[in-house]
Design brief:
With 449 residues, the protein is mainly α. The chain contains 26 helices and three strands. The chain has a three-stranded antiparallel beta sheet with strand order 1-3-2. The termini are far apart.
Length: 449
């Protein structure tokens, strides 16, 4: 147990190759803002990602890893970091002593939880358990001499295993504790611990189940403490960044979560830098989602929030949104796209999504440009997209085909002719009033109450 090592960066970032950070990536590095909202075990993969980038000071990062993990029970790994820092083959006496203490406590925990572990493995016992935790405790106490202290021992053992880096064992113990315990505070803590364990073991489907449990706990148990809700939602937002770009089915779910009123308010109030990840998700969702209406709503909401929070936070990713959809400045959008690409490649969570972001962003630039121009010079649009003329021509052909725009290529002139038929007055009236009946019905129902 003492020889466990923390989870590597590759395990939690799709194994994307790391490159030397550019000046732009370093200028907009979010690591100092993310660290205060993450558990120390979740911070380690971010430091690993940083150490894998060329040009970073290895000794400084090693020292940071050592300071981060020396309070944990991964004594063998901490000892190896100390040896690396001090260029020595010896191990400090205090680490040798701590290792022995950890092994003794593991043995003690194992013996003290053996009875309840055996009971929870017995189908005849489990079949008698009900949803009523108080009744379950009475049943276990009466028939098997299990006390509340025995159940609390599962919690302590789970936390100790987590500190040792044995995340799978810790997840099982914390889950068993949640099933039996009536201590709401400890159950909430165990749920957070279980979520961390599942993230570190990359059990993404289970992670999403735990995210819902934590969200429900925040909504119900902290309803009378708005400040605590704000803090816990801030933590949950940062922890969900791990499945956000690592688990495809989670992308839409977490995007919807971030856009929900409670969480978008939390982002705007407490952590506006999360707009980078929300913007990247919405932009890359362009090629993933089949629901055009939902995508347009998300894009509209994103533009609104970026406009509101521009004074509080901005980076090349949000600047791209501002340039394209607020300022309608195609030159600025094209230039910020190159900077955004560098920022994404230097971001632990977004490095694997950098290429798909640039691809989707180019489509958005092209669509917006084509919507407001009737005659488009292919060379000019290619330059705005950062493409060669031949490559740009193929791009535009594919764009017209994929989006079913009404446009024709004039190869001799090197232009694209766009047809923008104006809607009739009747069609405009229909579009503007088609939802009025539903809104009137809702308003009438609200007034009637």
């Amino acid at each position: 147990m003492t020889d466990n090592a923390p989870v590597s960066a590759d395990a939690l970032s799709n194994g994307k190759a790391q490159t030397a950070p550019t000046e732009v990536a370093q200028e907009y590095d979010l690591l100092p803002k993310l660290i205060p909202h993450l558990d120390r075990h979740l911070i380690f993969p971010l430091l690993e990602f940083l150490s894998g980038q060329e040009g970073e000071e290895g000794s400084e990062i090693t020292r940071t890893k050592y300071e981060l993990l020396k309070q944990t029970n991964m004594t063998d790994y901490v000892a190896s970091l100390w040896q690396e820092l001090n260029d020595s083959d010896d191990v400090p006496e205090e680490l040798v002593r701590k290792r022995e203490e950890v092994l003794q406590r593991l043995e003690l925990f194992s013996s003290e939880t053996a009875q309840i572990d055996e009971l929870l493995s017995d189908n005849s016992v489990v079949s008698n358990l009900r949803s009523d935790k108080v009744a379950n405790l009475k049943f276990l106490e009466t028939n098997h001499n299990v006390s509340i202290e025995n159940i609390d021992m599962l919690y302590d053992y789970g936390r100790f295993q987590y500190s040792c880096g044995s995340y799978a064992n810790a997840a099982d113990l914390l889950d068993q504790f949640r099933i039996l315990s009536t201590d709401n505070d400890k159950v909430t803590s165990a749920t957070w611990g279980k979520l961390a364990c599942d993230i570190l073991t990359t059990q993404w489907d289970v992670v999403m189940e735990e995210v819902n449990k934590v969200k429900e706990s925040i909504d119900t148990k902290l309803f009378n403490n708005p400040l605590a809700q704000l803090e816990h939602r801030t933590w949950l937002i940062h922890w969900t960044l791990f499945p956000f770009f690592n688990y495809e089915p989670a992308r839409d779910t977490i995007t919807d979560l971030f856009f929900s009123p409670a969480f978008i308010n939390t982002i705007q109030t407490n952590c506006p830098w999360i707009l980078r990840y929300l913007a990247a998700a919405v932009i890359t969702n362009r090629s993933r989602t089949r629901n055009t209406g939902q995508y347009q709503k998300q894009l509209k909401d994103l533009v609104r929030v970026v406009r509101q929070e521009g004074h509080e936070y901005h980076d090349p990713v949000t600047d791209f949104i501002k340039a394209l959809y607020i300022d309608f400045d195609f030159e600025a959008a094209q230039s910020t796209l190159f900077s955004a690409d560098e920022v994404l490649k230097g971001d632990f969570f977004l490095s694997a999504a950098a290429d798909s972001f640039v691809e989707a962003a180019r489509h958005l630039i092209s669509e917006s440009y084509c919507k407001i121009h009737q005659r488009i010079d292919i060379n000019d649009l290619s330059r705005r997209l950062g493409l060669e003329a031949d490559e740009g021509e193929k791009w535009i052909v594919n764009l017209i085909r994929d989006t079913r725009m009404d446009g024709k290529l004039d190869y001799q002139e090197g232009t694209v002719l766009m047809n923008h038929p104006a809607n009739s007055v009747y069609q405009q009236v229909i579009e503007r009033t088609k939802g009025s009946f539903f809104r009137t019905s809702v308003l009438s129902a609200a007034v009637a109450k």
